[in-house]
């Protein structure tokens, strides 16, 4: 099959590109490289350097081939930033997706997998996993932008015949077990790489926000899913689209606390993590875990790296092998670049 992956130079997108290539598929990547990395695109994979806000350039890429499907990862994704600059997030995420979806309908693309978010489920604190049937009440402009895109996909199906799968998840973590890709955000905001960097002495002691939540150890509980397992979920969802659109939650169903993340890094590395307590951050719920029962039942998806140590081990191996992330990697060999 032939697939176009938007945001394929980013964290989750690049790992999904690897999964597609490993499955024998033909893949091209569309990315504006605002947060992604050229070196994250595997050698030999064509990269279209295009901003999805550019309607004509987007349409040209979508219309350049007969795609069997499109996987859409390109988006701004920081909840805190979206609270500080809501209109930028709403405009960027919504309009880029709208341009892409319109082009897909116009050029007869029949399948689209959308990297959505479990941040759609806002409201009061929950101390149990969140099912797909939970009310959609985004607690941030970031979550709101994803919900708007899901509504566009509803109409693209009803009127344009574009079937879609929306995958809702929280915290992707880890790195490709073969060491081909990893996590490299500038700046880094995710707990696992921040904890590893604190342990390695690459940053000041980790600040742990809140120690008085109604959880098993007083720290926040979050749903961490290995990025390779997440990529597998996208491929399995793609196979389910025939004849219908759908939405799946993706998660480990357990959740790990902030203190458990620190303990896992210490066990895997054999070194102490310097950290210090800090006050709660406004808006941080006690627990965010996605219930992936439907995904498991309908696709047979089972995380291969469900335990926290596996997630940390691959993340640490990537960080130690690439202390500067992709900065020292350069462009991948034999990659074909199309500048839009």
Can you put this structure into words, describing what you see?
Its cofactor is NAD(+). It comes from Endobacter medicaginis. Belongs to the NAD(P)-dependent epimerase/dehydratase family. GO terms for molecular function: UDP-glucose 4-epimerase activity. Keywords: Carbohydrate metabolism, Isomerase, NAD. The protein has 340 residues and is an alpha/beta fold. The protein has a single domain, classed as Rossmann fold. 36% of the residues lie in helices and 17% in strands. The protein has 10 helices and 15 strands. An 8-stranded parallel beta sheet has the order 11-6-5-4-1-2-3-15, with helices on both faces. Helix 5 links the parallel strand 5 and strand 6. Helix 1 packs across helix 7, helix 2 runs parallel beside helix 4 and helix 4 runs parallel beside helix 5. The longest helix is centred in the first third of the chain and has 21 residues. The radius of gyration is 19 Å and the shape is globular. The C terminus is likely disordered.
% residues in beta strands: 15-25%
Q: Mind telling me the C-alpha Rg? A: 19 Å
Taking pLDDT < 50 over at least 5 consecutive residues as the criterion, the unreliable ranges are 333-340
By oligomeric state, this entry counts as: single chain
Largest sheet strand order: 11-6-5-4-1-2-3-15
Overall average residue pLDDT: 93
Domain count, please report it.
1
How many strand elements?
15
Structural class: alpha/beta
- CATH superfamily annotation: NAD(P)-binding Rossmann-like Domain
Number of helices: 10
Query: What is the CATH C-level name?
Result: Alpha Beta
CATH architecture title? 3-Layer(aba) Sandwich
Backbone shape:
globular
Briefly note the CATH topology name. Rossmann fold
Report the biggest beta sheet as strand number plus sense, adding barrel if it closes: 8 strands, parallel
The level of helicity is 25-40%
Distance between the termini: 24 Å
Please write the string of helix (H) and strand (E) elements: EHEEHEHHEHEEHEEEHEEHEEHHE
GO biological process, one term: galactose catabolic process via UDP-galactose, Leloir pathway
Cofactor: NAD(+)
Pathway: Carbohydrate metabolism; galactose metabolism
Protein name: UDP-glucose 4-epimerase
């Amino acid at each position: 099959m032939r697939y176009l992956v938007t945001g394929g130079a980013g964290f989750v997108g690049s790992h999904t590109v690897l999964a597609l290539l490993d499955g024998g598929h033909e893949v091209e990547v569309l990315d504006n490289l605002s947060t992604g990395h050229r070196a994250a695109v595997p050698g030999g994979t064509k990269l279209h350097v295009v901003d999805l806000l550019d309607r004509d350039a987007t349409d040209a890429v979508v219309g350049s081939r007969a795609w069997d499907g499109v996987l859409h990862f390109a988006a701004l994704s920081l909840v805190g930033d979206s609270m500080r600059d809501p209109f930028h997030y709403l405009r960027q995420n919504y309009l880029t997706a709208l341009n892409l979806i319109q082009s897909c309908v116009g050029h007869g693309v029949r399948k689209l997998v959308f990297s959505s978010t479990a941040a759609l489920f806002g409201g009061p604190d929950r101390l149990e996993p969140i099912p797909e049937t939970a009310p959609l009440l985004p607690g941030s402009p970031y979550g709101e932008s994803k919900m708007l895109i899901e509504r566009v996909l509803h109409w693209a199906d009803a009127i344009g015949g574009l079937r879609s799968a929306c995958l809702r998840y929280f915290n992707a973590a880890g790195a490709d077990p073969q060491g081909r890709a990893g996590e490299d955000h500038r700046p880094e905001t995710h707990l696992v790489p921040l904890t590893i960097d604190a342990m390695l002495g690459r940053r000041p002691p980790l600040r742990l926000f809140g120690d008085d939540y109604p959880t098993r150890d007083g720290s926040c509980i979050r749903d961490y899913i290995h990025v390779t397992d997440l990529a597998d979920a996208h491929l399995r969802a793609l196979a389910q689209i025939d004849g219908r659109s759908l939405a799946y939650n993706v998660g480990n169903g357990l959740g790990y606390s902030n203190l458990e993340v620190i303990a896992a890094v210490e066990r895997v590395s054999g070194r102490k993590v310097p950290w210090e307590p800090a006050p709660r951050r406004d808006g941080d719920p006690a627990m965010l875990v996605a219930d992936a029962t439907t995904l498991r039942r309908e696709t047979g998806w089972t995380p291969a790296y469900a335990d926290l140590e596996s997630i940390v081990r691959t993340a640490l191996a990537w960080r130690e092998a690439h202390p500067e992330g992709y900065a020292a990697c350069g462009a991948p060999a034999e990659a074909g670049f199309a500048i839009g």
